[in-house]
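Per reviewer request, we include the raw input and output of the structure prediction for the construct analysed in the revised manuscript.
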Amino acid sequence: IKIYDTKKIQYAVIECDKNIQGVLASRHLKHKPLMVMNKLKDTVIASMRVPDHINFDAGAFLSEFNGKIEGLTGGGHEKAGGVTMAREDFDKFVELLNEC
């Protein structure tokens, strides 16, 4: 997978009919939190994992996007989290990721 870098996290984008984004995030995790976003039909489902040695709360980070995009739901806990949104909101979400 191709991994993109932002100031706080890394992310990757896939299009797969299987719910494998969490597995991919775990396997490709290195020095920053990694979120893998799966464009699945009309929805995007994302999973984030955080390396054990980093003080970063995935759930709190993803919860910050709630309310910024209508219909987006995000949350989780310190080392893992997720987001679900409409596919049409994907570009706006990536834009927000790159701004933070």
